[in-house]
C-alpha cells in the first residue's frame, strides 16, 4: 500500500470525515487529519468537554497506572507532569491543553450524540440525537472501550436509602467526610478510591468478591529542576517516552501473552512480596491473597492500597453480598450500615460504538453482525462496513500498556487505507470476511497461551471465556500496523 499520507494523494478525491468521540483517540484523529491536510471533518462528542474517560471518571484517587511520560501523545510530550504517575485531573487538563493548542474546538460538535450511521450510495449518513445530519466519506470510531458503566445485578439495589453511584459517575455533591462509605469491587478503580478516601471517611467497607494481586508502585514527583530540563531539552522526554515504552512492552505487554514467560514470574513474585511484606495481620493477609495467577485479571498497581485497608476505619468484607437494603449492604454475615455506596463494578466492555445504530452495505446492521460478540479485522475494520475504521476496537491490545501508543499506531495504519481512497485507488475499503475469520481463528489459538486463561474471571474474557484482547507480543502489533495487506481488504 502507499506510505502514510502519500502526498501524491493530495490532489485526488476530496474526503469528508466524521470522528466519533473527543477522547484521547478522537483528539489524536483530529490532529493527524489536519497534519495530513484533511480539514473537512467533524468530531462528534456527546458531552460538553473533551477528554473521554478522564472527563467521565472523576472519583477520588483517580490516576493512570501507566507512567505519564508514556501516557502522552508521542508528538505532544509534556514537561509539566507532576509525578511519574500523574493524577486524573492533570491528565484531563493535558488533553484540554492539546485541544486548545491545535485549535480543535472549531471541529468539535459538543453536546450532540451520534445515534445513527447508515452507509448508502457510497457514503455514511449520520444522524445525531438533536436531529442534526451529516454525510461523510469516512467514519473514524473513537468511542473508547471502558465507557459504559456496569451496574451489579444485586437484589434490592434500588432500595438503598443513602447516596449511591457508579465510580464513573462520582457525585461530588455527596460528602464523604466522616461518612460510612461502602465500595463494591476490588479492581483498579476500587483500590484507588479506597486509598484516597480512607483518610477522610468515617468508615470504609470494601466489599470483595475476588481478591486481587497488587503490584507495588512508587510515585515520585518530578522536581522543578526535572521539569526545567525537560523544557530545555525535549529530546530527554522523547528518550524517557521510548524507554518506558520498551520497559512496558518487555515487562507487561509481552509477559501477559505468555503465561510461562520469565517476566510473568517476576510479576508474580513482586505481587507476592508486596502482599507478604506489607500486610501485617495474618488473617487479613489470607483474605487478600488471590487463588489465581498474578496478571490473570488486569493487574492492579498501587503503592498505598495495602496501607489503606489496614487503617482502623477500613474493613475488608469478604462474606458474600446477599442484598442491598435501605440501611446498607447485607452480607451472609450481617448488615453493613452505610451512608454512601460506591459501585466500582467496572464496565460493559463489548459495546464499543453501540448503542449507535450502524448499518453497513446491503442493510446489514452492526447489532446483527455483533449479536454474539464484537469483532473487527485487526480490531480496525469490519467486513461490509466500508470506510469505517475503529481505534481501540474489539480484541486489540488493552492491558497494562499505553492505549495512546496503540491508537497512534492504528491511526497511522488507517491513514494508509485513507490514502487509497484519496488517490482514487478505490472508493470503498473494508476487511474481507476471509481475513477476519482467519485472524479470529489465529487470535483464539494464540490466546490459549496467555495468562488471562489461567483460571480467573475478568473483563478480558468474552462470553466463551476467550480473551477479547491482543494475544501476541507487541512487536507483532507494530509489524501488523506497519502496512496494510491489500489482499485482506475488499477494495471496490
Ligand atoms: P473491574 O476491573 O472490572 O473490577 C470490577 C470489580 O467489581 C471487580 O472486583 C468485581 O469482582 C466487582 N464486581 C462486579 N460485580 C459485582 C457484584 N455483583 N458483586 C460484587 N462485586 C462485583 O473494573 P474497574 O476497577 O473499574 O477497572 C476496569 C479497568 O479500567 C481496569 O482493569 C483498567 O483497565 C482500567 N482502569 C485503569 C486505571 C489506571 O490507573 N490506568 C484505573 C482504573 C481503571 P470480581 O473480580 O469478582 O469479578
Q: How would you describe this protein?
A:
The chain has 492 residues and is α/β, with parallel strands linked by helices. It folds into two domains: 7-50 and 104-148 and 348-491, FAD/NAD(P)-binding domain (3-Layer(bba) Sandwich); 157-218 and 259-343, FAD/NAD(P)-binding domain (3-Layer(bba) Sandwich), CATH 3.50.50.60. 30% of the residues lie in helices and 18% in strands. The protein has 13 helices and 23 strands. It has helices spanning 24-35, 53-56, 88-101, 188-197, 224-232, 235-256, 262-278, 282-287, 305-309, 366-369, 403-422, 433-447, 474-482, and strands at 17-20, 41-45, 108-110, 114-120, 123-128, 133-136, 138-141, 148-149, 163-166, 180-184, 203-207, 214-215, 300-301, 314-317, 321-325, 328-331, 335-337, 340-343, 347-348, 357-359, 388-390, 429-431, 489-491. Strands 3-2-1-7-21 form a five-stranded parallel β-sheet, covered by helices on one side. A hairpin with a 4-residue loop joins strand 5 (123-128) and strand 6 (133-136). Helix 1 runs parallel beside helix 11 (403-422) and helix 6 (235-256) packs across helix 7. The two termini are 15 Å apart. Residues 2-9 have low confidence and may be disordered. The structure holds NADP nicotinamide-adenine-dinucleotide phosphate. Residues 63-66, 146, 152, 154, 167, 184-190, 192, 207, 209-210, 298, 321, 344-347, 457, 459 line the site of NADP nicotinamide-adenine-dinucleotide phosphate.
The number of distinct helices, counting runs of at least 4 residues, comes to 13
- pLDDT averaged over residues: 96
| Global morphology | globular
Bound molecules: NADP nicotinamide-adenine-dinucleotide phosphate
CATH architecture of the largest domain: 3-Layer(bba) Sandwich
DSSP helix fraction: 25-40%
**By CATH's scheme, which homologous superfamily of the largest domain applies?**
FAD/NAD(P)-binding domain
Amino acid at each position: 500500500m502507499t506510505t502514510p499520507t502519500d502526498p501524491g494523494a493530495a490532489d485526488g478525491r476530496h474526503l469528508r470525515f466524521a470522528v466519533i468521540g473527543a477522547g484521547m483517540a478522537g483528539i489524536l484523529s483530529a490532529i493527524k487529519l489536519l497534519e495530513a491536510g484533511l480539514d473537512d471533518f467533524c468530531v462528534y462528542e456527546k458531552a460538553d468537554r473533551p477528554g473521554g474517560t478522564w472527563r467521565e471518571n472523576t472519583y477520588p484517587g483517580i490516576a493512570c497506572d501507566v507512567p505519564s511520560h508514556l501516557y502522552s501523545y508521542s508528538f505532544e510530550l509534556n514537561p509539566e507532569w507532576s509525578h511519574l504517575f500523574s493524577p486524573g485531573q492533570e491528565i484531563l487538563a493535558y488533553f484540554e491543553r492539546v485541544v486548545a493548542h491545535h485549535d480543535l474546538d472549531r471541529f468539535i460538535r459538543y453536546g450532540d450524540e451520534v445515534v445513527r450511521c447508515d452507509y448508502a450510495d457510497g457514503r455514511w449518513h449520520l444522524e445525531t440525537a438533536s436531529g442534526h445530519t451529516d454525510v461523510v466519506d469516512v467514519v473514524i470510531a473513537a468511542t473508547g472501550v471502558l465507557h459504559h458503566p456496569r451496574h451489579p445485578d444485586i437484589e434490592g439495589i434500588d432500595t438503598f436509602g443513602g447516596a449511591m453511584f457508579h465510580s464513573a459517575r462520582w457525585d461530588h455533591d455527596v460528602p464523604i467526610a466522616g461518612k460510612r462509605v461502602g465500595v463494591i469491587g476490588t479492581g483498579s478503580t476500587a483500590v484507588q478510591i479506597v486509598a484516597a478516601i480512607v483518610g477522610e471517611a468515617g468508615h470504609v467497607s470494601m466489599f470483595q468478591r475476588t481478591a486481587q494481586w497488587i503490584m507495588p508502585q512508587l510515585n515520585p514527583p518530578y522536581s522543578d529542576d526535572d521539569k526545567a530540563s525537560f523544557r530545555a531539552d525535549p529530546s530527554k522526554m522523547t528518550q524517557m517516552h521510548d524507554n518506558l515504552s520498551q520497559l512496558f512492552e518487555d515487562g507487561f505487554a509481552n509477559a501477559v501473552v505468555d503465561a510461562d514467560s520469565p517476566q510473568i514470574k517476576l510479576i508474580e513474585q513482586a505481587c507476592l512480596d508486596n502482599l507478604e511484606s506489607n500486610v501485617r495481620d495474618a488473617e487479613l493477609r489470607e483474605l487478600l491473597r488471590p487463588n489465581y495467577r498474578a496478571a490473570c485479571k488486569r493487574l492492579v498497581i498501587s503503592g498505598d492500597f495495602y496501607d489503606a485497608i489496614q487503617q482502623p476505619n477500613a474493613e475488608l468484607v469478604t462474606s458474600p453480598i446477599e442484598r442491598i437494603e435501605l440501611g446498607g449492604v447485607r452480607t451472609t454475615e450481617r448488615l453493613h450500615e452505610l451512608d454512601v455506596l460506591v459501585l466500582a463494578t467496572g464496565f460493559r466492555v463489548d459495546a464499543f460504538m453501540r448503542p449507535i445504530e450502524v448499518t453497513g452495505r446491503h442493510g446489514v446492521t452492526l447489532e446483527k453482525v455483533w449479536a454474539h460478540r464484537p469483532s473487527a479485522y485487526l480490531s480496525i475494520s469490519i467486513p461490509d462496513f466500508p470506510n469505517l475504521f475503529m481505534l481501540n476496537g474489539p480484541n486489540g491490545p488493552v492491558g497494562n500498556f499505553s492505549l495512546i501508543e496503540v491508537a497512534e499506531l492504528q491511526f497511522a495504519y488507517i491513514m494508509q487505507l485513507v490514502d487509497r481512497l484519496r488517490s482514487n485507488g478505490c472508493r470503498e475499503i473494508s476487511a474481507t470476511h476471509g481475513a477476519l475469520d482467519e485472524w479470529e481463528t489465529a487470535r483464539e489459538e494464540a490466546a490459549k497461551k496467555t495468562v488471562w486463561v489461567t483460571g480467573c474471571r475478568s473483563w478480558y474474557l468474552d462470553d466463551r471465556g476467550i480473551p477479547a484482547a491482543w494475544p501476541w507480543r507487541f512487536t507483532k502489533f507494530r509489524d501488523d500496523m506497519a502496512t496494510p495487506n491489500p489482499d485482506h481488504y475488499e477494495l471496490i
